[in-house]
Amino acid sequence: MAKSPRLSADPSLTLRSLSEDLLLRVLDKVSEPTDRKSWRLVCREFHKVETVSRKRKAVFRRDELADLARRHPWLEQLDLSACPRLVGHELSGLARGLRVLDLRRVSGLSLAGLEGLVEGCPLLEEVDVSYWLGFGDLEASVVARLKKLRRLRMVKCLGVTDIGVARIAVGCGERLEELGLKWCMEVTDLGIDLVAAKCRGLRSLDISYLKVTNDGLASVSALKKLEVLSMVRCFYVDDDGLASLGKGCDSLLRIDVSRCDNVTSSGLISIMRGHQNLQHLNAAHILPELTSPLLSKIKNLRSLSTFDIDGCEIYASILCSIGLSLKNLVELSLSKCPGVTDQGIIELLNGCNSLRSLDLTCCHQITDVAILAIGTSCRDLICLKLESCDLISDMGLQELGSGCPSLSELDLTDCFNINDSGLKYVSQCSHLRSLKLGLCLNLSNKGLVHIGTGCKELQELDLYRCIRIGDDGLAAIADGCTKLRTLNLSYCYQLTDEGMKHVGRLEELSTLEMRSLLKVTCIGMSSIAWGCKKLVELDVKRCYSIDDKGLLALAQHSKYLRQINISYCPVSDMGLFALIAKLRCLQDVKIIHALNVSVEGLEFALRSSESLKKVKALESLKYLLSRDLIKLMHSRGMRFRWINKHLD
Questions:
Q1: Is residue 205 a part of any domain in this protein?
Q2: For residue 571, what are the β-bridge partners?
Q3: SS3 for 376?
């Protein structure tokens, strides 16, 4: 009888027998980032295969750029938005096969460095340079050399004018499909005219907050392939501009005209008349009410799936018409809409029972009756926002917990009638990922025990000013909600160092707000630093017992920290220097009224860092810091935000 083959006693020998091609096929089935990280830790072979095959990479430290192309030859998407000050020669070795590049908020990158990057990555199809402080017309002309560029986002690039936009339009031509110019305040009709003339293949355009007039919109209307148009707060556009847009291209699927103060219902009617295949319409904060002619046109938008009419007075009869007409509606926002009542919601849901997102923020007449109707009718609901719906009680949440099993986002901020019993019902939503309970003053540790027991998938929890919760409640959250990434504990005055020890067990935590935790000391801060290795944003404003020892713990353990607020904390020159000098990812520091920090200490700390991009400080320091320092920091791409605020 033949003996069955035996596996080697040494597992590493068995792994070496697997071909690289076979390992790559297995790795393709591993999608979760945490699982891929575990894969890398198995053995050298697994680590090598994962590293070589990686197609996406986010860089946090400059030293990672040196041999990036060698370590990741198949890299296609690179995110440098969190990387400190970039130097041109460091980018010369990027993978030539790169297709997507994120340069948001970069600092220090010179024009020559950008030119080298563009020459070294000829296959780039998508580039994001949003919030790049030094990005202007010259930089835009360099980006325009990319022969395969299809998507370009330049949000708040304040140095870009019509000249830069013209160079983009001429250089990219018809292959450009998406262009984002939001907050590029120097771009006018002239630049938009050139885009419309040269970029005939454009499918998505964002001109929000620009000085565009009706003439500019007339040019946009010539874009026959345009599907998405965002024009938030375009002050110089009125109904005539929307009329020309309605008569032009008939390809629009999504349009955002929110906060366009000179647009009325007549302009919206023109849009609807010319674009009856609209799927997304945002008309927030422009209409006092929905008129009968406008409502009759809305009824014809049979394909509409997302409708935002925040700030508009809505009555039950109107919601009834919307429910009967817009059967495909999936997302509806009625935030701050006076007139919304329980009856209106019931009438709406009689027709729109496929809603997946509903925003009722500040609809103060909503009671448990409406919530019961939502729980009964909206089985597929994913997102429900009920901030400041102060008539809602635990009874309404009972039906919500049992009727909406797929709910993943729930906002109950300032619903002050909610108590621990309500959270027991909420905990039945086992897929919940985001839960906001700020200003719910009746919640206690008992309620958090329910959440920790039932909401295992929770990633965001807001407990702002929940003044009755204590350390035991955080213990329950740490035990059950191990995937938590964002936590707000500000003004929860009962929390102590013991509670921070529980927070330190949340290994995935990246954002933590803990303002005015008066009982938390450096011991608690050290627990967080030791345990929360992935911490990126931290706010300890007015934590009067956190001093240099707390900052030293952060400097030693929180190597990925990018943003911190230490205003009003009793930190000194030594703690500030340790924090800024050692954390190479730190980019944003708020330091208002740190009375123990001297001007000389602040200067010394700032000079030690090449990663800082933004410092928020008292305006009086503007005249005390040396001109040389301010010039040096500006040359590194850092900017000061000066605040005039009295000590209180």
A1: no
A2: none
A3: helix
Q: Kindly report, residue by residue over 531-554, the tens digit of the pLDDT.
A: 999 999 999 999 999 999 999 999
**HEC string for 23-73:** HHHHHHCCCCHHHHHHHHCCCHHHHHHHHHHCCEEECCCHHHHCCHHHHCC
SS (HEC) of 207-234: CCCCCCCHHHHHHHCCCCCCCEEECCCC
Q: What is the pTM of this model?
A: 0.91
The tally of CA atoms less than 13 A away on the side-chain side of residue 243 is 6
pLDDT, tens digit (0-9, with 9 covering 90-100), for 32-68: 666 666 656 566 666 566 666 678 888 887 778 877 7
Measured CA to CA, the distance from residue 549 to residue 558 in angstroms comes to: 14
> Is residue 527 assigned to a domain?
yes
Instruction: Judge whether 163 and 138 are in contact, CB under 8 Å.
Output: no
- HSE-CB of 460 using CA atoms within 13 angstroms: 11
- Residue 522: its pLDDT value, please? 97
Decide: 443 and 423 in contact? Cβ < 8 Å: yes
Question: Residue 280 is which amino acid?
Answer: H
AA letter at 248:
G
Residues of the domain holding 587: 485-648
Close Cβ partners of 37 (under 8 Å, ≥ 6 residues apart): none
**Run of H or E residues at 394:** helix 394-403
| For range 270-286, the mean pLDDT | 94
Helix (H, G, I), strand (E, B) or coil at 536: coil
φ, ψ at 349 (rounded to 5°): -75, -15
What total of structural domains would you count in the chain?
Answer: 1
Q: For residue 556, tell me if it sits in a domain.
A: yes
Give CA 494 to chain center in angstroms: 30
